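Notebook entry, structure prediction.
Reason for the run: the old model in the group folder had no record of what sequence produced it. Starting over properly, with the input documented here first.
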Amino acid sequence: MFAVFPGLSTNQFRTPKLTLIGNRSPEARLTMGSQTDTLITPDEAEAMFFAQSAVFVDARSNSQFIEGHIPGAYSLPREDLEPSLADFVVTYPLDALIVTYCDGEACQSSNLAAMTLSDKGYTNVRVFFNGWTLWTNRNLPVENGAAGLRIMEPPGSSCSQLGV
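New structure, fully documented this time:
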């Protein structure tokens, strides 16, 4: 109880102030502290796909990617995120429109991928929250197989793409 008053007093002088009451949902956490809304709707994702205006990044595991993914998606699974970025960064310009997605309302892999890409200098990254589920529920195009899946080769080699 004695710590409450000093804590609240200190918060008054912080920049930015800590939110004491607020929305802590996964959707809200994606936009905390940012000037732009990073979340996109299923309608926006569909429009970007059919206009071919975005690079879709699947943040699910390699096995889930092979089972099915948005056509043309690039696989950047959470477990291989950093090593897989080497090929991605030389393939896509920093101003490319990128849409990350994973599966399930508890999945934070798309958010992690988006933040990592932003940290690498990408300026136009969006998150399609629960994207795989929403995509398949709308009966939108899907493909399966390893096209778009990158596997790291031994040190000294470059990344290669399977299925191409």
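Summary: Residues 41-161 form a domain with the Oxidized Rhodanese; domain 1 fold (CATH 3.40.250.10).
The old model has been moved to the deprecated folder.
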